[in-house]
Design brief:
single chain, 382 residues, mainly beta, Neuraminidase, 10-stranded antiparallel beta sheet, 1% helix, globular
Length: 382
């Protein structure tokens, strides 16, 4: 961690045009209100931060890609900060390293957290894993993980260093959902005998729920909730209980998808983007039988994390999604009407935005990407 609370500089960020957002139907998204202003407090900086989460007691956990987990206590007294020991060794490089972190729904009773990271395999291969552990915080400036247990592996491991995805979220149904990227291998996303290019649904201990769509097929197939995904880096439940993901397309065609039971989302058979070498891919609407995205972005937004806002501080945004934008250096604001969605604004930060979270008081927290990525607290402007 480079700095924390070194300054509380207040910045004004206004909404810029959302004219690059294009819906799946081809209609242009409306531009956001130009007068929308955040007050932004800079709360510190971190080394390649990837994810953050708030525990029920208000303490924040922050992961750094190289394999370090931090905690910060933003309580009313002197802020506490420190490092969490006991994180397993990560395979750091490319897009890989320490990833997501979330508390168990019953964290207040069991002190369990779940986290993802890239794990080395045999013969210069690697893949994502999800582990759980008991978080012990009995020191002022340090914590530790005990009883670390790996509950899921992304298989097969490959020699590539991208598209791990490994975003994790607990659903209102009580199950654990994991985004598993295609690992830049493409075709495995259409092969349900592996778990690449899928959204996985598990019990808390990593076992398979009996009502999963392919549970009767056994093996990795039984884990799968949906498939045909490329690189989902945002995964969140809306207030109505529906699961959404936001994922990277190839050259064009980033997608926002309503993730439904057993549905094939088409990658790499269809996409509204093209291969990086210029080879075309049939568009989503040219073939039937695949789940169609609610929004497609070309030019891309290069999405990071996603949340649905439920707080009172930005009351008009309740039920809306906020998406971290990497290539756009922005926070993307999306509104919903049932199963349809539309970008309404984006807020430019001047740096790649990796993570977005809602704080206990309804403030919005943003983590910038890369070395020295800032942690920012957003509240309504004057």
């Amino acid at each position: 961690m480079r700095t924390l609370f070194a300054s509380l500089s207040v910045l004004a960020l206004v909404a810029c045009s959302a004219s690059e957002g294009v819906s799946a139907q081809g209609t242009q998204a409306e531009s956001g209100a130009a007068a929308e202003v955040f007050t932004v407090e800079e709360m510190g900086s971190f080394a390649e931060p990837w994810a953050m989460t708030f525990l029920p007691n208000g303490i924040a956990l922050i992961t750094e890609k190289e394999g370090v987990m931090r905690f910060v206590d933003f309580g009313p007294d002197t802020p506490r900060m420190g490092t969490i020991s006991g994180v397993p060794e990560v395979d750091y490089g490319g897009q890989g390293g320490l990833g997501d972190v979330v508390p168990h729904p019953d964290f207040a009773e069991n002190s369990m957290i779940y986290f993802s990271y890239a794990e080395a395999g045999d013969g210069d291969t690697r893949g994502a894993v999800v582990a759980r552990a008991r978080l012990v915080m009995d020191e002022a400036d340090a914590g530790r993980l005990e009883d670390v247990e790996t509950i899921w592996r992304q298989l097969p491991k490959t020699g590539r260093r991208g598209h791990y995805s490994h975003r994790i979220v607990f659903g209102p149904d009580g199950y654990l959902y994991i985004a598993s990227g295609d690992r830049q291998e493409l075709e495995p996303a259409q092969d349900t005998t592996n778990n690449l290019g899928t959204i996985v649904r598990l019990n808390h201990d990593g076992s398979v729920p009996e009502d999963n769509p392919f549970a009767d097929q056994g093996g990795m197939t039984a884990e799968i909730w949906s498939y045909g995904h490329r690189n989902p880096l945002g995964l969140a439940f809306a207030p109505d209980g529906q699961l959404w993901d936001v994922e990277h397309g190839p050259a064009g065609g980033d997608e926002l998808n309503l993730v439904q039971r057993g549905v094939n989302y088409g990658w790499p058979t269809v996409s509204d983007g093209d291969h990086y070498d210029g080879r075309p891919i049939p568009d989503n609407d040219t073939e039937t039988g695949f789940g169609e995205p609610a929004i497609v972005w070309t030019p891309v937004i290069a999405p990071g994390a996603m949340i649905f806002y439920t707080g009172d501080m930005f009351a008009d945004w309740q039920g809306d999604a906020l998406i971290a934008g990497l290539s756009t250096n922005a926070l993307i604001h999306v509104e919903f009407d049932g199963d349809s969605a539309q970008e309404v604004a984006r807020y430019d930060f001047g740096n790649r935005v990796r993570e977005v979270e809602q704080g206990p008081d309804g403030a919005i927290w943003v983590l910038e990407d890369g070395e020295g990525g800032r942690l920012l607290r957003l509240t309504p402007g004057a």
